[in-house]
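Q: Structure tokens for this one, please.
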Amino acid sequence: MHLGNSIPDAVLEFPGPKYVVVETKIRPGMCSETQLLNHYHGAADRFGEDKIFLLFLSVERMPPSGVGLLSGQFKGKVFFLSWQHVLRYLEPKRAAGDHEQRFFLEQFFAIIRAEKLWRLFSMNTDELKSFLVHFPEVSTGREAATNTLLSLLEAILARAIACSGESAEDWTSEDSNWELPCLYSALKIRSWHTNTSAYIFVNAALGKVGVILTGYQDDRAQKEKLLGRWQDVFKSAFAGDPSARTFTWAEKDEDEFAGATGYFRLIEGTAGQVFDPSKFEVFADYFYWGYCQSGRERHRETVPASGRGLQKALGDIRGCFASHNKDGRCEASKR
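A: Here is the predicted structure, written as tokens:
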């Protein structure tokens, strides 16, 4: 919206009417007193000064000097809000609300991750104390922990292949990661539309173990092949399985859990739903679905439970493709 010669990032209208003119910055030191002043005068000319407020939303933890000067000049009219406060307010609400609300919050946090705004969070005193207490143990035990988790990954992989009815083979040599925080190995499934057809992962940062099927991975041809079959068969099958979940791929350093490896990020709000992945921005490049559980809750049952999950998924796949292809096969495309 143009306010004279000024174009703010947003203008919010509230009953009254009242108008909140919003200017946002995602880099420190970008506050322009002149820009804010132009916003203010432009809004006052258009709506009337008694009906407007100016909000500066930025990565700074304290109001920049320009905001302070304007708030002193226009008493009760100019305000500052940090992104840290916004994120801390919204974070606990991601698991609440209905499907649509959770979806929009996920979209918002996807933008936050893309802009690396998660780096703005700092530890409070108690978190820092806990970190310093445990750091020596974590640092020295990292290699031993990696070896143990790799053994777990290999056991789940072997179990999954055994449960597949000879439909899956080890594809670790083509795609795998053996570095923390997210260890994973790939599987190739006969008749699947991608050579890298599924993944077993052990995420140390989140304490999750998962078995997921590959929809598509930053490949247009893969995406087109999957979406047609998703609409015909997989969509309703997914909605009918309340334990199935969807995932995307988070690149390294994308958020606080990605580390130097990246990880399969669980997307809340899709379980039990009929939906089209192509309509979700979060699935624009990567889409997976499958099963995951906490590796911390019931460690002894992790291996068989994960194996059963893939066995169920593979059973669904065999049935689906038998109905789509007379010879029961589908041409595989390399990743």
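A few notes: The CA atoms of residues 72 and 78 lie 8 Å apart. The longest helix spans residues 125-163.
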